[in-house]
Amino acid sequence: MAKYEILFKQLRLAILRGEYAPNDRLPSENAIAIKHGVSRITSKRALNELAAADLVYRVRGGGTFVKPHKSTKQRQILLVLPFPETTAFGDYQSGIQSTLLGTTWQLRLMANERFLQLNLNELASQYAGIIYYPQNLATELPILMRLYAQKMPLVVLDKQPAALAAPSVTSDNVAGGKIACEHLQNRGHRRIAFLPETPFWQTFTGTVSDRFLGYFNHLKLASSEAALPLRWAQALQTCTTAVQLQAYIQAQGITAIIAENDVVALRALQRLQQLSFDNNATIALIGFDNLPAAARNNPALTTVVQDFAAIGAKAVEALLDQINNPKHIFNDQTVVGVKLMVRSSTNHH
Questions:
Q1: CA–CA separation, 64 vs 48, rounded Å?
Q2: Rounded Cα gap, residues 172 and 306, in angstroms
Q3: pTM summary value
Q4: pLDDT tens figures, 82-100
Q5: Residue pair 191/167 in contact by the 8 Å Cβ criterion
Q6: Which of 169, 121, 161, 167 shows the shortest CA–CA distance to 144?
Q7: What are the CB-based long-range contacts (under 8 Å, 24+) for 115-123?
Q8: What is the CA angle 83-84-86, rounded to 5?
Q9: Hey, how many other C-beta atoms are within 10 angstroms of the C-beta on 174?
Q10: Quick one: which H or E segment has residue 333?
Q11: What is d(CA 98, CA 76) in angstroms, rounded to the nearest whole number?
Q12: Would residue 70 be called left, alpha or beta, if left means φ above 0 and alpha means ψ between -120 and 50 degrees?
């Protein structure tokens, strides 16, 4: 990222956080350059970017000033999550809280189940904006549509809200499937299957579908085997017992599995271990999410790690953008990178 872009993002966040009040004068180009250790050309370009983003205005001979933005009496931001009482399934809160640190903004948490019981018409009097993690996008999209129609500042977590003009922040699930498959191939595996709980093939949309297709895209298959990955996934999804799972894996000659998430991966490991299946010699397993249980398991689970703090930080920035500039349409779909945490569940072939 260029120096002016880094400086622009820092100044933009300071404005969004409320460190500068409407009509406050920003430091001069020279003062900004000295403070941040950059050239005056860099500081000038960063200020130009702020003007282009409609965050500041210029007065000839007078300097650069923060553009008046929407003032809101509500200083509460609502984060809606399936399991708000725990961070085991993703600590979005830390990224949000670190961005809001030192401001008058307050974060409130609520479960989807409770949120769906609220009177949506009263939300604007209680919250300045909402960051929403859909449990089921198909059933909850009408709720998001109502919030959008009411001009409630809204950011969607983990899923892209179809063509609704609302911003979203997601992990790069396609890349996650790819790096998991690549790791297994580097360990010598060729018959690599995907183990889902979600029947993603009904719509081929969403997180699990992206993970599957990321894995599929990176498989090295003969043309005669092109149908195998989906067939395996559909069959494995129906294996509800340890006996069924073991029998299918052995019959198909599968040596490695990428699971939909850590919960599914750990359940599969436990089932195979129940049958005294020699897992350490025959099957490698990768999950997604890096749950605490993944590291504690024996064998410890290799998993695709999402940067939940970065997702939370980007989500609240996108929300503050909307709160500060309600007349502008913000609908960027932000994708945050992932990485692989290698543990002992893939240390063999």
A1: 10
A2: 8
A3: 0.79
A4: 988 877 778 899 999 999 9
A5: no
A6: 161
A7: 115/78, 115/80, 116/140, 116/143, 120/146, 120/147, 120/150, 121/150, 123/78, 123/147, 123/150, 123/152
A8: 80
A9: 19
A10: strand 333-336
A11: 15
A12: beta
- State how far the Cα of 331 lies from the Cα of 102, in Å rounded to an integer: 27
Examine the pLDDT at 348 and tell me if it is beyond 80. no
For residues 194 and 213, what is the distance between their CA atoms, to the nearest angstrom?
10
CB 324 within 8 A of CB 16: yes
**Of 21, 13, 17, which Cα lies nearest the Cα of 68?**
21
Domains, the chain: 3-66 (1.10.10.10), 76-171+308-336 (3.40.50.2300), 173-306+340-346 (3.40.50.2300)
Res. 278: pLDDT tops 80: no
Interaxial angle between packed helices 228-237 and 207-218, expressed in degrees from 0 to 180 and rounded to the nearest 10? 140
Residue type, 74: Q
Name the token pair of 96: 């949000």
Spell out a b/e string for 282-317, using b for 16 or more CB atoms within 10 Å of the CB, else e.
Answer: bbbbbbbbbbeebeebebbbbbbbbbbbbbbbbbbb
